[in-house]
Design brief:
Elements: H1 2-13, H2 24-38, H3 45-52, H4 56-60, H5 66-83, H6 91-108, H7 111-116, H8 123-138, H9 143-174, H10 178-190, H11 198-204, H12 212-238
């Protein structure tokens, strides 16, 4: 009798099993929540099965392995940014919308930046290049220049967004609010050799009012202006 009661108690202590069927979307959403809350190292199949109260087999039914899961989570966040675009918008404005959407997504989900550069040409990165290239073609950028122009834009977006995501993590780890954090950095810059770092000294005086998104968009506009200038010059040279 006692053995039977111990078995029943053991069963009652086990985590409840999931009653409703899992879907790929439910799994990917749960993985994204883990990544956002605890970072990439926290996403293990054990953690995911515990969160979903399911077994490994149910996960493997929808996803091949952890790499497949990370790729799916990345696509889950990025896909709509590069596909759900206003059809009647000017291509230059659409490029700004895509760029800012990617910037915000990577800052909000820092793990995405490393996923997009983990391996050469992952599918989500291909979708980004395709979206950017389509808008450049709508701007009448010559086909021979589309690839290079798209590369410059995407490299800038990923680079700046990745750096700002790193800054955001540093801010969280510092336990400071943003204004205090920027004031601390400005004070550090003020201690630099003014002869060797004159520009950093000047930048430090403006750092407290610094707006990451505003500066990012300024860079996008500079790149687009450069593409337009080169495009126009090429057309002028082709006129007899």
């Amino acid at each position: 009798m006692r053995d039977r009661m111990e078995v029943m108690a053991t069963k009652s202590q086990r985590a409840p099993r999931r009653t409703e069927a899992l879907s790929r979307d439910v799994i990917v959403k749960a993985a994204t929540e883990i990544l956002d809350a605890e970072g990439e190292d926290a996403l293990t199949l054990r953690a995911l099965t515990a969160r979903l109260t399911t077994g490994y087999g149910a996960i493997y039914h929808h996803l091949a392995d952890r790499d497949d899961l990370l790729a799916a989570a990345t696509d889950h966040v990025i896909a709509r940014i590069v596909t759900d675009l206003a059809v009647d918008a000017e291509p230059q404005e659409t490029l700004r919308v895509v760029a800012l959407g990617l910037f915000d997504a990577i800052v909000a989900h820092p793990w995405i930046g490393s996923q997009l550069t983990r391996e050469p040409w992952p599918p989500t990165l291909l979708d980004i290049y395709e979206s950017v290239s389509e808008q450049l073609q709508a701007l009448d950028v010559p086909q021979r220049a589309v690839s290079a122009s798209a590369g410059v834009l995407v490299d800038y977006i990923l680079g700046v967004a990745g750096q700002n995501a790193a800054n955001a993590r540093a801010l969280v780890n510092s336990k400071m609010d943003r204004s205090t954090f920027l004031a601390t950095v400005a004070a550090q810059w003020a201690q630099l050799d003014p002869v060797r770092y004159p520009s950093m000294h000047k930048a430090g005086t403006q750092l407290r009012e610094h707006d990451d998104r505003e500066q990012f968009l300024a860079g996008i506009d500079l790149i687009l202006a450069g593409i337009e200038t080169v495009n126009r010059a090429g057309k002028d040279r082709s006129v007899p």
